[in-house]
Amino acid sequence: MSKKIAILGLGIMGMGMARRLLQAGDAVTVWNRSPARAASLVEAGARQAESPVDAATGADYVIAMVADNDASRSVWLGPQGALAAMARGKVAIDSSTLDPGWVETLAVEMKAAGVHFVEAPVTGSKVQAEGGTLRFFVGSDPESLALARPVLDSMGNGVTHLGPAGSGAVLKLANNVMAGIQVAAFAEALALVEAKGLDREQAANLLRNGAPGSPMVGLMADRMLARNYDPNFLIPLMAKDLGYGEALLASAGIRSGLAAAARARFLEAEQAGLGDRDIAAVVEPLRQS
């Protein structure tokens, strides 16, 4: 049976998720801060809303995929926030990468409104969102997850329930801190071998296939060697995630020089005018230094 689903946020990930739900035959309403972003989805059958509260009116499920805590707060609880329009018993899903403290606060607001809340940040990027192969790190109560699962299954191929609200954010930030450190480290290594005149293809292949290699290193090697920076994961978002991750580590009594150093690399790339490029472009300022 067709579900009425609202999507708030049409960045790289939100666009792919919305398309998957349309392909599943659901009635999809979309909202984005920049309305022009929704044009192709409207052509594919989505309804375009004027605000988050408009999008959520009459929806069975509301999904947010936005940049950060502030954007999440705005789309749910702001003057035109979606929560005000949601009927009791409906399901709210936030798949953004957020700080666990904010997720816990949002969960309290959802409970007070009688709305089922599922935090479901994802692993994967543009290709996985478009292909319906995202994996969800879920924090929720079991009842809410059971209600949300049909929608999550339409967008991905893996749902892992980690615990109560906030649990997903902890693991997602741990994931992205590790990823960001690897990307920054490989960028430095590649810039080094280039600066010293080694065959960069040969060196990159040795690194990606040796002990330091990983799926992330292999992916970055391909993009950095080709200088292909079409966005899959934007540089400012990685900088944001590393900042959230550093603060989360500190809250656990873990002082992380690694997260801070990696974040500095991404901030440097953003300041160099690469804010609309893929995270692989973090290597470019090092090539020019």
How would you characterize this protein structure?
- With 289 residues, the chain is α/β, with parallel strands linked by helices.
- It folds into 2 domains: 4-163, NAD(P)-binding Rossmann-like Domain (Rossmann fold); 170-288, Orthogonal Bundle (N-(1-d-carboxylethyl)-l-norvaline Dehydrogenase, domain 2), CATH 1.10.1040.10.
- The chain is built from 13 helices and 9 strands.
- The chain is globular, with a radius of gyration of 20 Å.
Total discrete domains: 2
Helix count from the secondary structure assignment: 13
Question: So what's the CATH class of the largest domain?
Answer: Alpha Beta
How far apart, in Å, are the first and last alpha carbons? 57 Å
- What is the topology, as strand order, of the major beta sheet? 3-2-1-4-5-6
What is the name of the CATH topology of the largest domain?
A: Rossmann fold
Helical coverage, percent range: 40-55%
How is the biggest beta sheet arranged? 6 strands, parallel
How many β-strand stretches?
9
Strand content: 5-15%
CATH architecture of the largest domain: 3-Layer(aba) Sandwich
**CATH superfamily heading of the largest domain:** NAD(P)-binding Rossmann-like Domain
How do the SSEs run, as a string of H and E?
EHEHEHEHEHEEHEHEHHHHHH
Shape: globular
Which oligomerization state do the chains in this entry correspond to?
single chain
What is the CA-atom radius of gyration, in angstroms?
20 Å
What integer is the average pLDDT?
A: 97
Which key features would you list for this structure?
54% helix, N-(1-d-carboxylethyl)-l-norvaline Dehydrogenase, domain 2, Rossmann fold, alpha/beta
